[in-house]
Amino acid sequence: MSIKPIRKAVLPAAGLGTRFLPATKASPKEMLPLVDKPLIQYVVEEAVACGITDIIIVTGRGKRAIEDHFDVAFELEVLLRDKGKDDILKEVRAISDMANFSYVRQPEALGLGHAVNCARNLVGDEPFAVLLADDIIHHVPTALEQMMAVYRETGSSVIGLQQVPLAEVIKYGVILPETISAGLHRVVDMVEKPRPADAPSNLSVIGRYILQPAIFDCLDRISAGAGGELQLTDALKRLLKTHQIHGLELVGDRYDAGSKIGFLKATVALALDSPELGPEFRSYLKGLDI
Asked: How do residues 266-290 score in pLDDT, each as one tens digit?
């Protein structure tokens, strides 16, 4: 079986970021700085490290800062060069050189499934990855790298999973698994945001996907589901009728950086892990009277 390489990644980034208001009134949530980089740059780097060359960002009104961040900043680069700040100049240039960036607008916030479907013409007829910028998963190998290994072995769609307390399954898409080996499952069925009593397991889908292009036809056939939105989970459930899907329990520390407390936890964790900032920041935290 010939398995096509994953060359493209879709990053949905059209949400309004209401949980971070007023900070996100005029600035995209995806551009909030996590230590020294915006949220969205972390997942771009994760994708590029896995060999992805084309990054498709699904944006909406008020998201121009994302495009500017991944574009060439000519005036800034000239200023840095003239001031002899070569190290910073190299870092700034690397941002726009990471990948081929393209953008598509999601005119209305109609759900994750709708956002992915907006990228259909740019993805074309090939498998692709989807990464959610506010799901920060801190580990080596990265979450997407772990999933790529499963994809290369199976050629199937792969979704990232995490075990969550049963009381929290109502926040997620949840799978009915057929376990293949430790942490690896064949997805038998899926349900979006079930009540704990109705959940088929506590294995919840989190913000990493590798999808076959057949998902687009499935997205065309679903109607609004939970929350009145077009749910990617519903399209995946339809895809199961004709295609195999694997679910992988991802190894790593996961932070929901789309929530304030998750963002704070991610900031602390990544700051402590920074070679530049970690030692001083750790010393500071130890000295706090808490």
From this structure: 999 999 999 999 999 999 999 998 7
d(CA 210, CA 161): 12
Q: What is the mean pLDDT of residues 88-100?
A: 90
Question: CB atoms < 10 A from the CB of 243, how many?
Answer: 15
Among residues 89, 94, 97, 232, the alpha carbon closest in space to that of 173 is found at 232
Answer yes or no: pTM beyond 0.85. yes
- 3 occurs within a structural domain: no
- Please count the structural domains in the chain: 1
DSSP codes of every residue in 186-202? EEEEEEES--GGG-S-S
**On the CB side of 134, how many CA atoms lie within 13 Å of its CA?**
21
Q: How many Cβ atoms are within 10 Å of 233's Cβ, its own excluded?
A: 23
Q: In this structure, is residue 2 part of a structural domain?
A: no
Residue with tokens 């079930």: 194
